[in-house]
Design goal:
The complex is a heterodimer. By secondary structure, chain A is mainly α. Chain A has 6 helices and no strands. In chain A, 63% of the residues lie in helices and 0% in strands. Chain B is of the alpha/beta class. Chain B is built from 9 helices and 10 strands. Chain B has an 8-stranded mixed beta sheet with strand order 6-3-7-2-8-1-10-9, sandwiched between helices. In chain B, strands 4-5 form a two-stranded antiparallel sheet. The mean pLDDT of chain B is 97. The chains are: A mainly alpha, B alpha/beta. Chains A and B meet through helix 1, helix 5 and helix 6 of A and loops of B.
Chain lengths: 71, 281
Amino acid sequence: MSRYAVNSLLYRLKKDPEYRARFLADAASALAGLDLTEAEQAAFVARDMRRINELGGYLHLVMSVPGLAAH
Amino acid sequence: MGQMVFAGAMSHVLDPDYYDRACGAAGRQKVTECMAEIARMGERLTAARPDALIVVADDHLNAFSFNAVPAICVRIGRDVQRMVQDHAEAFDKVLDHMPERYPLHEGLANEILERGMAADFDLALSWEAPVDHAFLSPVNTMHGTRPLPPLVPIWVNSFVAPQPTARRCFAFGRHIAKVVAATPWRVGIIATGGLSHFPELSLPRVGETDTVFDRRLIHWMEVGEHEPLQALTADELHKAGEHEFLNWMVLLGAVSPARAAVRYFGELPRINLAAVEWSLA
């Protein structure tokens, strides 16, 4: 489990509006080159915050990324 | 000689709309009741004429990211800015209409930091970190439109394992009490967060709380029994969703052996809301 990769990505999605817009437009392309496992990559592409949390994503991040947050 | 003139602890998402969305009308009603008690606590704080207000709270991966997560960090400098989040959601949205800058009590912050290092507390310091709802929601609810005293924000790492122990947080609170006593200032202290919510930081368990655990903590605080609280383990706090109680442990160390009086306790599925005040006479 690459917990750092998952969480640094969540943090970037929360704090960097330009990157977030790129991700929302084309997630697979925005994720290219990141150090994610296949499961992590699939969870982000599916915007599945529950799965991302299971994979080590911090709860407060999965609950607060604008436009993607689980409630 | 300096004096601790007020001590209180309270939940820190204080927003009727947030709880309406999360828990419906009961959420709105209970947080409104809790906020009214916190506002009354603020009136008593103001009446105590504090020169400074120490706010012990946690970061929600806003001020600190993954380049460094300090166990305990003292905010120094002349003022602090509130966190800015574009398109804020959930608990971040609480900040949207709050003032953007707040004065700090530079003298007290420096004393806590410098004497802390001299007393073997390996504290982090920050001149730049912004404060989020954990600091500003209680502080603004307490003061309404009245001017705020200069703040001393202190972060405790409540969420990113490994956290400081409950015992260490209490010891740091003892340190704060000694520092305050050696200054000329009248000082208020609040700790924020909790009580039980978000057990194991697991999304499927958002909506569960541990009221039995909360009542045990409250009982020990009411009778001034602080030893069993210091013995709480990281695992116990994690399972019961009591991560933020570490902030309260700092306050307990600062006021021990004072006894707590519960001003509000309200159960909701998302969180058990609480407001507690200590008698310092």
